[in-house]
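hiii so um. not sure if this is the right channel but i have a protein structure encoded as tokens and i wanna go backwards to a sequence. like what aa goes where. can anyone help
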């Protein structure tokens, strides 16, 4: 059996006209570190679930990406984080929403999956589960980045003038990983800070199983990034799986159709990464770019931003 891993650091991305060589190098390096962290698990015959956990933790630790340490701010200047993880072997899943405190929200989501009978928890009890699991917590300065704060101020100033920030990167910030291990199991993990200047309490597609995150050995594992409300309303991740199971489409055919034909015409800009139980990877997107990368037992490590 082979293994395969794909990661993403959000769609929409920085417009090519604004990207500097130094920043581009930093993004590629961050994606590569995530791939290396996940592949280290898979190379040893480890589980896809562990691989996606490690890969997403690496992305959460990187301030360049909108998750955990690089999370954006709500309209009230707070940070509220969502995350989900799913095991394709048995469809077990865990998710958190509106969370602040755990250094790695994806580990909090996994704690929900492994320590409770529920799929999603929010608020104080989600934090209690994370503490009981011994997960590290951080204070506000750890999660603060000047670039995210400046983006909030810019958006609020535009709103005060009756305008809205139409930069696609504002609402596409998410990180994720999907993997197939040498045992033929798949898993998905997704984490996000949400949309810049989002309403307090807003929950996007990331922690909603079947919307921004999904995994089933019978079809594929999916992690999405884009306009979360549309991904949720069109149940994007589950639809990719359904097309594979009911229409016999390949992972590439199913992912392409949903991204280009379901999401794109309905203001659902963004993209997905997906992998099936044979290790075949798809990474379609319908916007200017998507921070993404892949690696496998017969696939060299590769990171990409634009088309």
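sure thing!! here u go:
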């Amino acid at each position: 059996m082979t293994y395969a891993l794909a990661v993403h650091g959000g769609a929409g991305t920085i417009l090519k006209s604004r990207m500097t060589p130094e920043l581009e190098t930093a993004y590629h390096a961050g994606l590569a570190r995530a791939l290396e962290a996940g592949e280290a698990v898979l190379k040893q015959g480890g589980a896809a679930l562990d691989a996606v956990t490690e890969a997403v933790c690496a992305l959460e630790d990187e301030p360049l990406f909108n998750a955990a340490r690089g999370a954006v701010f709500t309209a009230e200047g707070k940070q509220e984080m969502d995350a989900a993880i799913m095991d394709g072997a048995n469809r077990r899943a865990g998710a958190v929403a509106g969370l602040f405190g755990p250094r790695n929200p994806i580990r909090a989501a996994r704690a929900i999956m492994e320590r409770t009978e529920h799929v999603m928890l929010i608020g104080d009890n989600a934090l209690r589960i994370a503490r009981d699991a011994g997960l590290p917590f951080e204070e506000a300065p750890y999660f603060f980045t000047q670039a995210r704060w400046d983006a909030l101020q810019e958006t609020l100033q535009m709103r005060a003038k009756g305008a809205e920030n139409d930069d696609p990167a504002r609402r596409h910030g998410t990180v994720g990983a999907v993997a197939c291990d040498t045992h033929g199991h798949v898993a998905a993990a997704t984490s996000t800070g949400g949309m810049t200047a989002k309403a307090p309490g807003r929950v996007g597609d990331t922690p909603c199983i079947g919307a921004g995150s999904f995994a089933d050995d019978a079809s594929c594992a999916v992690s999405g990034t884009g306009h979360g409300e549309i991904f949720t309303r069109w149940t994007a991740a589950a639809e990719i799986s359904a097309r594979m199971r009911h229409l016999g489409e390949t992972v590439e055919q199913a992912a392409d159709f949903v991204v280009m034909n379901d999401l794109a015409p309905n203001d659902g800009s963004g993209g997905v990464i997906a992998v099936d139980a044979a290790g075949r990877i798809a990474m379609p997107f319908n916007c200017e770019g998507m921070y993404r990368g892949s690696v496998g037992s017969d696939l060299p490590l590769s990171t990409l931003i634009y088309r």
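oh and Residues 21-43 form the longest helix (23 residues).
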